[in-house]
Amino acid sequence: MASASSLKAISSLCLSNPFKSSPSPSQTQRLLGLNFSHSHSFPTLKSTPTHQSFSNSKNFPTAAFFGQNQKTAERSTQPTKVQELNVYEINERDRGSPAYLRLSKKEVNSLGDLVPFSNKIYSGDLEKRLGITSGLCVLIQNVPEKKGDRYEAIYSFYFGEYGHISVQGAYLTCEDTYLAVTGGSGIFEGVYGQVKLQQIVFPFKLFYTFYLKGIADLPAELTGKPVAPSPSVEPSPAAKATEAHATVKNFTN
Amino acid sequence: MACSSSPRPTKVQEFHVYEINERDRSSPAYLSLSQKPAHSLGDLVPFTNKIYTGDLQKRLGITAGLCILIESKPEKKGDRYEAMYSFYFGDYGHISVQGPYLTYEDTSLAVTGGSGIFEGVYGHVKLHQIVFPFKILYTFHLKGIEDLPQELTAVKLVEPSPSVEPSPAAKACEPQATVSNFTN
């Protein structure tokens, strides 16, 4: 893997047009093997944003959202409590991911390109392996003036026996974004809210902050003090090796 | 921030849906985009099948959506997919779901939303595979909506088995054996 200093350099760039000059699948594989001098081999992840596009993230329009449900019987008058959950998504390059499908058949990233992907996820304190992400990024447009791309992303986070959380929203390679939490299963059944996506190292390390509503208190195992995001963060060796004490139960793989 | 948001209604309503691939909708369309011989990340599977009530007496409509192959699990003799699709119930509206589809075991998907009588819906749905990949039984656990019509809920579930079939009338879409303007 590239040294930390080159990773830092990469993370400070806003990368774009990953495949401008290397459209073929075989070249994609080579790039994934890691050639940082050409970088951006692949989508899915974000770059360090200097400015958040959503300043009012917490002022979720819940009143408007619930207006339409007033006709149904309400069973509770408790306020909707927000719970934060931090997750690290790390591409360890051992899942064949991502798979950049250049279906637009153009040299520049264009509408028509699809990017299925699946990476590993760890708790915010990087002590436990939780499971995986899996889903799809749909390339929407290349944004040359921002040296980046816009994707529409639809994917899920799997937390072993705890269940899963599904999300949908914008993934911009040059900015942090907020995605909608569309639902979940297991302990996340009925969940709603949003999740902030921060890219740490394009495209290998991402840090998520979920703002979850509608569910019971999260287990302590998931809510440890997060390690502050930086390009050099790594899961603990035990978590990476999926030793029994360093994973959630039946972590998804 | 003031606690101005009304909490969502939490009464759970259950109902069953059978999804049956009658092999007359050109589905599924397995796109081997990974360009590898075995199922690999990159393969996409758009699909659409017919859906019936839990007693298999009425045709409801269709499913429509996409399965994304995530990885093949040789030790389980199956595959993991990420699935995102909708169930269409004719004039009643639709329900959208997202989550895991494992060809070798039951899963639980998130109900992400809906339209018509399902507008505002949330919850989850259990997917039980009966005959891979032709027959699936779903049990929806829905919240946030008005009481569902009897046509969908007051049915005696036909227990899942490989030989379950829709009633001939439902299969033939005779008017008394479909919901209003069933989706096709």
From TrEMBL, chain A:
Main location: plastid
GO function term, MF aspect, one: allene-oxide cyclase activity
Subcellular location: Plastid, Chloroplast
GO cellular component: chloroplast
Transit peptide as UniProt keyword: yes
Record-linked InterPro entries: Allene_ox_cyc, Allene_oxi_cyc_Dirigent, Allene_oxi_cyc_sf
Catalytic activity: (9Z,13S,15Z)-12,13-epoxyoctadeca-9,11,15-trienoate = (9S,13S,15Z)-12-oxophyto-10,15-dienoate
Superkingdom, natural source: Eukaryota
Keyword Plastid: yes
Region (Disordered): 229-253
Alphabetical list of Pfam families matching this protein: Allene_ox_cyc
A single GO BP: jasmonic acid biosynthetic process
Entry keywords, A to Z: Chloroplast, Isomerase, Plastid, Transit peptide
EC number of the protein: 5.3.99.6
Similarity comment text for this entry: Belongs to the allene oxide cyclase family.
The name this protein goes by in its record: allene-oxide cyclase
Organism: Rubus argutus
From TrEMBL, chain B:
Predominant location: plastid
Gene Ontology MF annotations: allene-oxide cyclase activity
Keyword Ribonucleoprotein carried by entry: no
Annotated protein name in UniProt: allene-oxide cyclase
Gene3D superfamilies from the UniProt entry: Allene oxide cyclase-like
Organism of this sequence: Rubus argutus
GO biological process: jasmonic acid biosynthetic process
Top EC group: isomerase
Subcellular location: Plastid, Chloroplast
PANTHER family reported in the protein's UniProt record: ALLENE OXIDE CYCLASE 4, CHLOROPLASTIC (PTHR31843)
Taxonomic classification: Eukaryota, Viridiplantae, Streptophyta, Embryophyta, Tracheophyta
EC numbers for this chain: 5.3.99.6
Catalytic activity: (9Z,13S,15Z)-12,13-epoxyoctadeca-9,11,15-trienoate = (9S,13S,15Z)-12-oxophyto-10,15-dienoate
Keyword Transit peptide attached: yes
Family that this chain belongs to: Belongs to the allene oxide cyclase family.
